[in-house]
Amino acid sequence: MSRAPSLTGRLTFIILLVEFVGAFVALSTSYSLELLGLVGNRDMLISDYAINHVHRLVVDSLTRDETGALGVAPTAALRSRLSRTPSLQFAVFEALDRPALPGSSAELSALLKHDGALKSRGQRFAIAARPGRDGRGYLIVDETPHGRLLVAASGYDIEWSDWFYLLSDDIGFTGAFVLVVALASAAATWRGVRDALAPLRRIAADARGIDMSSLGQGVDPTGAPAEVRPVIDAMNEALARLDASVMRMRRYTANAAHELRTPLAILRARLQNEEEPSFKADLEQDTRQLQAIVEQMLIAARLGEGQVSLEEEVDLAETVWSVVAGRAPLAIRCGRQIEFETIGAPSFVRGNARAIASVIGNLVDNALRAEPEGGVVLARVADATVEIIDHGDGVAPTDREAIFEPFWRKSEATPGTGLGLAVAKELMDKMSGRIFVDTTPGGGATFRLSFPATPKRAGPIA
Question: If you classify domain 252-450 with CATH, what class do you get?
Answer without folding.
Answer: alpha beta
